[in-house]
Amino acid sequence: MILKVLSDDAYLAQLAAEQAAVAMQRAIGERGCCRVVLATGNSQLAFLDVLTRMPGIDWKRVEAFHLDEYVGMPVTHPASFRKFLRERVIRRTGIEKYFFIEGDASDLPAAVREIGMKLTSAPIDVAFVGIGENGHIAFNDPPANFETEDPYIVVELDAACRRQQVGEGWFADISQVPKHAISMSPRQILKAHEIIAVVPDKRKARAVRMCLEGEISPMVPASILRWHSSTTVYLDRDSASLLSPTMRNAGTI
To answer: How far apart are CA 27 and CA 138, in angstroms?
Structure first.
């Protein structure tokens, strides 16, 4: 795992987007296409804004999946991750091949199986992820399932995760936040050739410390990123503030 601690969020977004663009261009050059997994949420806004404006990416050769979606949520809901991606990635880039998790499908198990088959039909070149305030990765809250090989699973969201969604402004109060979601499984995330984790903000500092310096454990789901040899974690000074000086300084740019 490579750690990079940047001086500010804008610099973080720029460097992470540059690395992402190189990975995508490499895949397109080698295989004629690039398959990516997209993260959503406030922590990804600046990164995606820069990435979608990066020159030299042939977006029509990109196939996009996403990490998670709420169970029962229509695509028109302001908190829908499908809506987020349509507005912030699909419309900006003109991606033609994108595959959404239909959280409000009438036959949810069939929809989960179908998106899983599409995801695993070929390797994923690069996955973009974040880390939640409770240490979650995608919507895998603690204790996460580190054993399943299923590409997508239905998970129960814990109170900390649901409070985070309220704190980020997606819902007015916790009673409005769904209690279940469809999430890419931790082991499936690790199957990407390269992982880029974008994790700014002071409110992520405790989770970052647990994930990077604590035990690799289902109780700290994003700690599983340390099992992947081609993961780069981008932090700002705030999200890195609780790391040991040795680790923080080693990753500072």
So the answer is: 24
pTM over 0.85: yes
Let me know if 75 is exposed, middle or buried by CB neighbors in 10 A (0-12, 13-18, 19+): middle
Q: Which element (helix H / strand E) includes 48?
A: helix 45-51
Residue 87's pLDDT is: 96
d(CA 151, CA 37): 12
Helix (H) or strand (E) holding 128: strand 126-129
Q: Is 59 helix (H, G, I), strand (E, B) or coil?
A: helix
| Average pLDDT rounded to a whole number, residues 9-28 | 97
CATH of 2-251, one of 3.40.50.920, 3.40.30.10, 3.40.50.10240, 3.40.50.1360: 3.40.50.1360
Per-residue pLDDT tens digits for 168-220: 999 999 999 999 999 999 999 999 999 999 999 999 999 999 999 999 999 99
143 upstream amide cis, omega within 30 of 0: yes
- Separation of alpha carbons 92 and 63, rounded Å: 15
CA distance 73 to 133: 22
pLDDT score recorded for residue 251: 82
DSSP 235-246: EETTTTTTS-HH
Give the start-to-end residue ranges of the domains of the chain.
2-251
| 180 in Cβ contact with 157 (< 8 Å) | yes
